[in-house]
Amino acid sequence: MQSERRNAALRPQKGERLVFDASPVLNERPLHYCPGCHHGIAHRLVAEVLHELQVADKAILVASVGCSTFTYDYFNVDSVESPHGRACAVATGVRRARPEAVVFTYQGDGDMTAIGAAESLHAANRGEKITAVLINNTVYGMTGGQMSPTTLLGQKTTTTQAGRTMGNDGGPIHFAEILAQLGGVAYSCRCALDSVKHVREAKKALRRAFDVQIAGLGFGFIELLAGCPTNWHLDPIAANKRISEAMIPVFPLGVFKDAGQEGGGARHA
């Protein structure tokens, strides 16, 4: 009934032409994310890809712990919550128990590259047929803005109040490049959500990350550079600028491995 009312409200009236529709894979409810957060854009892209691939009815989301904890409220697909950092381990069990399903994780950088680094790396190395979506905003968003493995050098967080330093903390980890070295990984890519051009590229990459799973090629991975205006203490416009001017030079965009393409080397955007 709710979807029928939504569809009726969106149906073009006389003299109107519908140019942009709501994805049926997203539930109609307000998002809990902070203003300017890019999780909403990422949700939209994943939902559109699942709908266009016509696999939403057999998709299973493995939600992580972090700002994306309530992801399962927004996607109109079957879902399961995983312990902190263990999304790829849980997804492994789900996919092996339900080999006909399309299984994907949705994780933050603190979840996937810190407490979940071992589970993520080994699932990728085994070539588990799942798709992992990493939202990299270089900070622990939900728990108070602490340093994460992807925090930039010099970036101030609640646990690096003078800025991250190489001597004390090491440099930011490049997960897409690391995963590309593993034999079980079929696709590894990094995109950004700071501009229309980059958002369109991200959608194409997300589709490819799901394609390799559906084709049975192995582990599919996509990293999305995203903003966290609240913990960065920036307005949304300045946060977008930070992605383009500070993050992308450190985390280059591009495809680092594609098992379905000859060569499979890095192709930077």
Describe this structure in words.
The protein is α/β, with parallel strands linked by helices and 269 residues long. The protein has a single domain, classed as 3-Layer(aba) Sandwich (Rossmann fold), CATH 3.40.50.970. The protein has 10 helices and 8 strands. The protein has an 8-stranded mixed β-sheet with strand order 2-1-3-4-6-5-7-8, with helices on both faces. β5, α8 and β6 form a beta-alpha-beta unit. The longest helix is centred in the C-terminal third of the chain and has 19 residues. It is globular, with a radius of gyration of 18 Å. The termini are far apart. The model has no long low-confidence stretch (mean pLDDT 91).
CATH superfamily: Thiamin diphosphate (ThDP)-binding fold, Pyr/PP domains
Structural class: alpha/beta
Please give the number of β-strands. 8
What is the architecture at the second tier of CATH?
Answer: 3-Layer(aba) Sandwich
**Estimated share of beta-strand residues:** 15-25%
Give me the side-by-side strand order of the main sheet: 2-1-3-4-6-5-7-8
**The CATH topology is what?**
Rossmann fold
Mind describing the biggest β-sheet?
8 strands, mixed
Radius of gyration: 18 Å
Low-pLDDT segments, ≥5 res: none
The overall pLDDT average reads 91
Distance separating the two termini: 43 Å
Number of helices: 10
Inertia-based shape: globular
What would CATH call the class?
Answer: Alpha Beta
Please estimate the helix content: 25-40%
List the secondary-structure elements in sequence, H or E.
Answer: HHEEHEHHEHHEHEHHEE
How many domains is the backbone divided into? 1
